[in-house]
Specification:
By secondary structure, this protein is of the alpha/beta class. It is built from ten helices and eight strands. It has one domain: Aldolase class I (TIM Barrel, Alpha-Beta Barrel). Strand 1, helix 1 and strand 2 form a beta-alpha-beta unit.
């Protein structure tokens, strides 16, 4: 069963956010197949309102980041227990926009993942290379390093990694099917060696996933779902992605 996660990023005010979440929830509730898992990750300000809008629909609620500490004098931060208290099941961590724009290191991402798991959240750990790294032939090396540095040594119960090539996020570009297949196999190989098995692992693809390319992407061997950015801000297009592989 594919897992389709929407990352709204820094988009959405109250009324529009609730309308979008309600539209997605209605589609999931009306879906007779129930052949995919769906989650929405709105900005922090909308978590409780969106949570109320999707209640009882089967849509999961998630945050887009969390602090590595559970509480304390950290102005502006939101902790994993706070996300859990707001109704979240999921949290996205290590997204390339956090790594680049906020200079998050692998060690910081690892600390956040550990904090989220301690709070009982299911984590989506993001990895991916830049265009310069891919053109230099270092894509596999970079992702392996991110996996080693970012993921805790103890395997979590719900184990989700999202491969998002940085050069394909918000650019309209997507990796080829062969590129995606190779990287997802590489991720599984790295984690399988480290953790002694792959039971429970889901590897998502993210990077300009849209309604018109979702079927091809989700049909690539080793792709267990998608982490969707801009296309998830339109209910019809997001649902087209959700139903691309039934």
């Amino acid at each position: 069963m594919p897992l389709i996660v929407s990352n709204w990023k820094m988009n959405g005010l109250g009324a529009d956010g609730v309308a979008l979440a309600s539209a997605v929830a209605a589609k999931v509730k009306a879906d007779p197949a129930k052949s995919r898992e769906v989650a929405v990750c709105p900005p922090f300000t909308l978590l409780e309102r969106v949570g109320a809008a999707i209640a009882g629909s089967g849509v999961g609620l998630g945050g887009q980041d969390c602090a590595p500490k559970a509480s304390g004098a950290f102005t502006g931060d939101v902790s994993a227990p706070m996300l859990k208290d707001a109704g979240c099941f999921w949290v996205i961590l290590g997204h390339s926009e956090r790594r680049a724009g906020h200079k998050e290191t692998d060690a910081q991402v690892r600390a956040k993942l550990e904090a989220a798991e301690a709070a009982g959240l299911a984590t989506i750990a993001c990895v991916g290379e830049t265009l310069a790294e891919r053109e230099a032939g270092k894509a596999l090396e970079v992702v392996a390093g991110q996996l080693q540095g970012s993921l805790p040594d103890k395997r979590p119960g719900r184990w989700v990694v999202a491969y998002e090539p940085v050069w394909a996020i918000g650019t309209g570009k997507t990796a080829t099917a062969d590129d995606i297949k190779a990287m997802h196999a590489h991720i599984r190989s790295c984690l399988g060696r480290r953790h002694g098995g792959l039971a429970g692992l889901s590897v998502l693809y993210g990077g300009s996933v849209k309604g018109d390319n979702a079927r091809e992407i989700l049909g690539v061997p080793g792709v267990d779902g998608a982490l969707v950015g801009g296309a998830s801000l339109k209910a019809e297009e997001f649902w087209a992605i959700c139903t691309a592989r039934s």
